[in-house]
Structures are given as structure tokens and as C-alpha cells.
Amino acid sequence: MKSEFKFHHDIRVRFADTDLQGIVFNGNYLTYYDVAWTEYFRELGLTYQKMLEMNADTVLARTEIDFKAPARFDDILEIYVRVAKIGNSSLLFRFEIYLQGEDRLLNAATSLYVCIDSKTLKSTRVPDALRSLISELEGTTVNRE
Amino acid sequence: MKSEFKFHHDIRVRFADTDLQGIVFNGNYLTYYDVAWTEYFRELGLTYQKMLEMNADTVLARTEIDFKAPARFDDILEIYVRVAKIGNSSLLFRFEIYLQGEDRLLNAATSLYVCIDSKTLKSTRVPDALRSLISELEGTTVNRE
Amino acid sequence: MKSEFKFHHDIRVRFADTDLQGIVFNGNYLTYYDVAWTEYFRELGLTYQKMLEMNADTVLARTEIDFKAPARFDDILEIYVRVAKIGNSSLLFRFEIYLQGEDRLLNAATSLYVCIDSKTLKSTRVPDALRSLISELEGTTVNRE
Amino acid sequence: MKSEFKFHHDIRVRFADTDLQGIVFNGNYLTYYDVAWTEYFRELGLTYQKMLEMNADTVLARTEIDFKAPARFDDILEIYVRVAKIGNSSLLFRFEIYLQGEDRLLNAATSLYVCIDSKTLKSTRVPDALRSLISELEGTTVNRE
After folding, report:
1. Which 3-state string (H, E, C) describes chain B?
2. In Å, how far is B33's CA from the nearest CA of chain D?
């Protein structure tokens, strides 16, 4: 539900994103979520470079994706993003995609990202500075789930 | 576990599949699974064209993906594929990816495909002919899960 | 040179667009040009649907691309687009890519698109309505090259 | 013409490679050429890792692509590859794509790759060892063009 989210980022579907069924190829939703994830961090004031500097590189560890209805070429998609839970070394993201201006859910994902050291690739604790920034954006709901 | 599968298809990781972390970008695993899915049906004697003719077009409805360890450029990936369950209008696929010749699981997915009418896009019953072909390949285990 | 162009469209480089060299994979520039091409037609008041309706579906027949300098993750690219020449059944596009706010050319392409009938895929004459719209945007320079 | 080539590599078109026109999206040909380029070097006994070790990292500097006829889902494409010319710091590749077992040219490209130092990204001389390996595969024709 859109109202659960404080942030969204819009993406227009590219011709190259479609396949011969005339709809967006399924793998491209992970690209859309990745873009929206990047923009969520930019909203927090964090570029990828700054995240590396605060030792908060991340990798996607697990995702669940529901394909409710197809997106098509030239559609403007609103990608809603929120952090549902902050773990010791992980961030649980929730994503939902709606056609611009509509309330019908097209696609949804729940994705677990793990903070890693970009050199050793081992998991690291979510930095306190990152916890603060996320909590500030999301309000008090993050750690209660 | 490789021994649960009757079929696998090998894919070599392309340079274009990697990202600046030096590993395969997460969305590309859905492409790998899609390719292996196509080859699974070819193993059954079914091209996409034949599937359309038997009114068995499909769409991906839901997927869960576990990213256990990254794949890298030039790796040869063994993509294992099996149908875990045949529902009324759906096929539940299980996929696992291993580095060629190794037993360490890199990536795994459970994906629900729904049979649709390619014109109306409404769900249709899994054709009996398709049920037979799958059961023949998989043995007796398909409908018991 | 930016000043030769009446139109540009900005694209931010996605993580998925990069490869293990840490730069944008070469094939993705054709996607960027395709997006900018779509936006050029939108600037003319034409969606893809409207182009189909005026019997002006197109295919890319030939392209020459110069890779002057690499683009990187998170860069904002200004994609400049103009029609350099309108032939009987073809449109010659010129594209140039600059980092936002900079004058150093990163990438350039000259691409020949051919108008086709979307059913027969045979080449068709560039519709007069399209010629007018392009000439209006570009000014008097289009047919002189 | 196939007979000009000593090497080819086959690629089957993936569902994800197609677009809503039902044909391979133009940018994907650069991916196909990149894969075939990698396999050409493997034929020479060179993995990307070995090329880095012989200080022969490369970047694509320029390409010209002719889109003669579209490739479609599930087509098996024969990607022919040869080095047409070895310059001081560059390799000129010629690529041609045919449907498996047919003589009709679908796509062709001429691509200039420049050897670079992978740290400084500055152009370097084509290593003698690489010149020898290529000349051995191609025969006496390489330096005459």
C-alpha cells in the first residue's frame, strides 16, 4: 500500500526492457528495484561512494518477488521503497511498483541486503550512522517489525 | 542438492553480466533461470512455439531467490531445473546453480509459473499433454509435494 | 558539439549498466541511444503508438559508435539527439553523450533508421507528417546535409 | 563471407534478448560480439586473466554495425570472428552473424579495440606474444590489410 512508504522513485519502461510477449522481462524488475534502492540511499544523503566510505557496501542475499500484473513499454512506474527492518548486519527492504497515478499493484518484492566489507566480502554490522539516517526517514516503525 | 535433479543446462557467465563489484549482477540470475527453463522444455521435446500451440504459454507469477555466493566472469554455471509441483494452472519450478564440477550452491530459486492463454492472458489449466511429459521426465515425485 | 543540437535527454547510469572494468558495458550505449531516440519523438508529440498509427514503425539499419571515454555508475549523461538527414525511407540520427555540465564528448553515434510497415517489415516512405514535425524542431538544416 | 573466417562461436538467442517487436534488441548484438570475442581469445589459449597478465587489457574504441535482418528467439547464431588488422596499439576485428546452417548475413560489425594498461587506462602496444598467436590462427593475411 502506497501509504506505508515515505519514498518512491519513478522509472519509465524502456523499449529494451520488453520481450516478445510485449511486456517487461521479469529479470528487469530486479534492475528497477536496484535503481530505486540507489535513489533511496541518495534521499538519505548517501551515494554509493559514501556508503563504501562508511564501510557499508551491501549485497543482495535473498529476494521474493510477486509479479501481479505486467508493465509495458513507456509506462511510468512508481517504485516505492522502504526499510522494513534493520538487523545486526542486514537491511530488509520492501518494494512495491504501481503505474503512475494508479492504485493497482504491479509488482512487489521483499529483499534482504547484507552489509559487507568491500575487501573481504564478509558481513559487517550495519553502521550506526546508517541506522540513524534510515530511522529518521522511516520514523519509528523500522525496528518494531 | 544436485542429485534431486534430472536435468541441468550449462551457461558461461558473460562479461556483460558482471557489474562494478566484479560479480554477476543480481537481475541476471533471472535470465539464467529463464534460459534453463527454456532448455528444460526443449528436453521435453517442446519449443516455445509448440507450447503456444498446446495453449501453454506461461508467465512468472512469483519467485524466491537465494544469493548464496557470487558467480564471476567466465564461470561455467550448471543450472539445475526440476518441476517440484504441478497445480491446476501452475507449475512450481526449483532451480539451483553450481559452479561446474563443484558442490557449493551459488544460487537457488523457487519459481511459480502460471499457464495463460496467450491472447486473453487469463490463466488456463496445465494441459494434460504437458503434465505427462513432465511426469515422465521427473518420475513419480512431481505431484506428491 | 552540443550547440548543433536542439534536444537532449538525461540518463543516470545504473549499477546494472556497469561491468567488471567498472565502466558502462559497450552494448548499453545502444540502449541509451534508443531511450533518447524515444524521447526525441515524444518531444515531437509522438509516442511509439502514434508512430505505428502514422505507419512509421522503424528499425535500426546501421550505426557507427565512437567510444571516446567511459561513463561510470551514477554519472548523469546528457544524450544529445538530432536528425541529420531525412531520406526517402530513412532517418539519419546523430547522437552525442556528455557528462552533465561538461564539454568533453564521451560517446557519439550516427545511426540510420529505416521506416518499415510493422506488418510486412518492408521499408516505407517517411510520412510527410513526420518530415514536417522533424523539420519544425530542427529548423532548416535537416535536408541540406 | 563465412569462408574468410577461421573461427566462429555459436549463441542461442535468449527470450530476454528480444523486445516487443519480437526480434533481438539492437544493443544485444554488441553483447553477442563481446562473447564471440572472448571465445576467439580462448581459441588462442588466452583467458581474460591471461590477457591482463600479458598487459593486454582492451577497450572497444569504435564499432560499425550493419543490421541486415533480425534474429529471433531461439535462433542459433553463428558468430564469425577474425582479426582484420593489427595496428600499433589496436586490433581491428570483423564479425559476421549467420543463422546456423544458412548463408544469409544477419548482422555484421567492424570493431576497433585498443590495448590499454588496466591501471592507467592508457593505450599500450599490442604485445608481441599476442601478435604471434593471432597471426598463427589467421594465417598471413592479418597485417596486409
Report:
1. CHHHCCEEEEEECCHHHECCCCCECCCHHHHHHHHHHHHHHHHCCCCHHHHHHCCCEEEEEEEEEEECCCCCCCCEEEEEEEEEEECCCEEEEEEEEEECCCCCEEEEEEEEEEEECCCCCCECCCCHHHHHHHHHHHCCCCCCC
2. 11
